[in-house]
Amino acid sequence: MTRKEELAQSPSLQDELRRMQNGEPYDAHTPEMREWRDEVKKLLNRLNNAEYHADSMADITREILPNAAPDIYVEPPFYCDYGNLIKTGEKVFINFGCIILDGGGVSIGRKTLIAPGVHIYTAEHPLNADDRDRFEMCRPVSIGESCWIGGDVTICPGVTIGDRCVIGAGSVVVKDIPADSLAVGNPARVIRKLNQK
Q1: Which of 29, 53, 119, 125 is flagged as catalytic?
Q2: What radius of gyration do the chain's Cα atoms show?
Q3: Most buried in the list 53, 76, 110, 141, measured by CB within 10 Å?
Q4: Which CATH superfamily is domain 3-193 in?
Q5: Torsion angle defined by CA atoms of residues 75, 101, 106 and 29, in that order, rounded to the nearest 10 degrees
Q6: What are phi and psi of 17, to 5 degrees?
Q7: Angle at 19 between CA 13 and CA 25, to 5 degrees
Q8: What is the per-residue pLDDT across 136-170, written as a single tens digit (0 to 9) for each?
Q9: Where are the domains of the chain?
Q10: Quick check: 21 and 103 in contact, CB under 8 A?
C-alpha cells in the first residue's frame, strides 16, 4: 500500500477533501492535506525530470491523473495540487508550464488543446483576512470539447467554457463563455461567434 493510499483512509483527510470538493470552507493546511499534496509533488517531480521516453512519461502521467483519458498528453513541466480531481476526455493536449489548482475539480473535454503557460484555478480565498487565515474554498472549472486555450490564459474559479471555444492568448477568464465563441482580453469577453455556417 502506498503512502497516498494510507492517507486516503484517514477520516480527517476524507472530511477535508469532501468539504473542498463540495465548495464548502475547508482547511488546506492540516498535516494530512499537506502530506497528500507532498505525495503528488513527488510524482510531479518524477514527471518533470523524466527523460523523454513516451512509455515512462505516460505511466507517471496516469499515476498523477488517474481520471484523465489514457491518451492524454502532458508536456512537462506540469503542476497541480491533487491530480485525481482533473478529468479529461480523449486526445487532450496540455503544453509546457501548465498549472492546475484542481481542488474544486477540473473537467476538460475531448480534443481540447491547452497552450503553454495556462493557469486554471479552482481555489479561492476569503476577502476578510481573519477568514483567509482559517479556511479557503473551491469552485469547479469546466472546459468543453474541441477548445483551444491560448498561451498564458488564466481561468478563474467557477468558470465554464463551452464546446469549440477559442480563448485568446493572455486572456483572464472570470465568467462563463458560451459554446462556439472567440473570447479575448482581461477580463475575457466574447468578440465573435465561431463555427457558424
Answers
A1: 125
A2: 17
A3: 141
A4: Hexapeptide repeat proteins (2.160.10.10)
A5: 140
A6: -65, -40
A7: 115
A8: 999 999 999 999 999 999 999 999 999 999 999 99
A9: 3-193
A10: yes
